[in-house]
Structure formats: structure tokens, C-alpha cells
Amino acid sequence: MGGLKTTRELIELCHINKDKYVLDVGCGVGATPCYLAKRYGCRVVGVDISERMIDRSNERAKREGVENRVKFRLADAQNLPFEDALFDVVIGESVTTFLEDKQRAVSEYVRVIKPGGYVGLNEETWIKTPPPTELVEYATRTWDIKAEIPTSDRWEELLEGSGLRDIVVRTYKINVLGEFSQIRRYSFKDLLRMLYRTLSLYRSSAFRRYMKERLPTPKNLFEYLRYGIYVGRK
Ligand SMILES: C[S@@+](CC[C@H](N)C(=O)[O-])C[C@H]1O[C@@H](n2cnc3c(N)ncnc32)[C@H](O)[C@@H]1O
Question: Rounded to the nearest whole angstrom, what is the distance from the C-alpha of residue 106 to the centroid of ligand 1?
Fold first, then answer.
């Protein structure tokens, strides 16, 4: 959410520079780890629960010539396979929202950073509460979010509850058209792959039914739903 502009905001709030060792949880196709290595020259590890995402991330790192500084690994954000106090910063973009045990995940992020290190998250947030039941159902169904989407107060509590301090909370409106501009972060090959996959899926009537149930987006959804940046220091 918020694209590269928001990633840069997180980078700034987490004080990332070339000397920092960064972990990106739920790295997807590896866009942020490769950007960090290329633009800031730091060492980065990206983890994701999906093997396919790890393959895409490795391809990207190779293509962008940053394999020496970026490594990817299959792992669950709620059970990180790293020793305590290994990293300077953990970032997570649109990942912790999807996790059932958010407190455990945030505690894992805190465990693997050094004292004085930062955790920075960019996550979906209910801003007006309580959200109408149909909106909660829509969000759960459409984005396959099995867990609850927290409010900004709840996100703040999750960070505090894991021992972080100097917490920064900033929430932003979701600009649907602006979100489409994120497409620039993906390579031509990634876009072709997405297009091919969507077209192949559309040949199945079950998928067409699935999409019909999810469209259109309820008009009032973005009155209630925003995205938030949550940063804290250990
Ligand atoms: C919405 S995508 C965001 C990807 C990336 N952070 C970005 O902003 O482009 C969510 C990612 O989280 C990963 N994910 C979901 N559950 C996870 C878990 N328990 N541990 C690690 N990654 C997970 C998914 O495989 C997916 O790649």
C-alpha cells in the first residue's frame, strides 16, 4: 500500500543505510530487498512462506545484479529461523495483517533485532470502528485475510506489547488509482507472468465465479480502511 513512496518513508524512519543488516518479512517477489541493496547498498535477507515467491525473488536479485548482498529464504514470519539480535532492522509490508498470531510475529521481529534496532511495518488498518459486518466479510473474502485486521490503536499495542518504544504511527487514505502505479515496481517479465496467469485462470468457470463474488469493491470500504505505518525501536 502506498508503493515506493511508503517504502522510502519506512526506510527513513528505520534509519536504514549501507551499514545496516535488514530483514524483510513476507518479501513477495523481492522488490523491496533488491531496492534496498541497490539504492542503499545494505545487506538484506528476505523471507516468505511461499516457495514460488522465493524463486521469483532469487530471479530478481540475479537480474538486478545484487545477489551478493541479498539472500532469500523460505520461512514463517511467526517463527523466524534466525538467532537473537542478528539484524539492525526488520521491515514488513502488507504481511503481518495476514497472520493469525500477530503478537507472536511482532515478538519474533523484535527478538531478531539488536537493541536500538527498528521494526517498521506498513499494514492495512481499520480507521473507523466498528466497520460494518459486510465490509469485514468483503475484506476477509477478497484478500483472503483469515485473521482480524487491527485498528491503529491495536497495531500500536502490538508493537508496545513486544517491548518496542518511541513508536511512530501514521495512517494514510488508500488511493486506488495510486495503487496501480505500483506496477512500475515489477519487471516486464513479472507483468507478463501475471497477465498470462490471469488469462489462464479466466478460462476456468470456478475462477470467474470467484472474481464475480469479489467485484465490485463496496463504495464505503475506504471510509473505514486505510493503511498505516508503524515503527518502533528496541
Ligand atoms: C501482500 S503480499 C506482500 C509482499 C511484499 N511485502 C510487497 O509489499 O510486495 C504478502 C506476502 O506475505 C507472504 N506471507 C503470508 N504469510 C506469511 C508468513 N506466515 N510468513 C512469511 N510470509 C508470509 C505471502 O506469501 C506474500 O508474498
Answer: 14
Any atom of ligand 1 within 6 Å of the Cβ of 26: yes
Q: Is 227 in the pocket of ligand 1 (CB under 6 A)?
A: no
CA-53 nearest atom, ligand 1: 27
103-147: pLDDT as tens digits: 999 999 999 999 999 999 999 999 988 889 888 888 887 777 767
Expressed in angstroms and rounded, the spacing between residue 68 Cα and the centre of ligand 1 is 23
The contacts of residue 63 (CB under 8 Å, 6+ apart) are 187
Q: How far is the CA of 43 from the centre of ligand 1 (A)?
A: 20
Q: Which residues pair with 121 in a beta bridge?
A: 92, 230
Domains of the chain listed by start with CATH number = 3-132+146-176+221-233 (3.40.50.150)
pLDDT in tens, 19-70: 999 999 999 999 999 999 999 999 999 999 999 999 999 999 999 999 999 9
pTM of the model: 0.89
Whole-angstrom distance, CA of residue 26 vs CA of residue 39: 20
Sign of the CA dihedral running 16, 20, 23, 27: positive
* Ligand 1 atom at shortest distance from the alpha carbon of 185: 9
